Amino acid sequence: MSVLYRIALVLVIIGAINWGLIGFFRFDLVAYLFGGQTAVLSRIIYALVGIAGLLAIPIIAKRFEDEDEVETHTRIDQNPSYGMEAGEEADFTEVTEKKVKKVENKDSQHK
């Protein structure tokens, strides 16, 4: 994400916080900090937040496009990987079979 879009996103968040304060508490933080709603600096802040909102539209559109391209796989679709981080896991099926045979032989000898 470019620096321009990051700045736009920060301004949109500032605008959202300001609108939340207006909605919940009837308090306009931008107007309070910069000399009222009609002050030049307040109007510049409002304009920048508005432009940032317009710049954020492609960010949302790009996010929706990315979600459409995501492929989801479940274990039903793919064979699970039982590999270890250090390498392939050893196959112990033969060792287990030999132990089972030894135990069966011992059981049959004792009976």
From TrEMBL:
Transmembrane intervals: 7-34, 40-61
Name recorded for this polypeptide: DUF378 domain-containing protein
Source species, domain of life: Bacteria
Organism: Lysinibacillus macroides
A matching Pfam family: DUF378
Keywords tagged on the record: Membrane, Transmembrane, Transmembrane helix
Coiled coil: none
Keyword Transmembrane helix among record annotations: yes
The UniProt record lists the keyword Transmembrane helix: yes
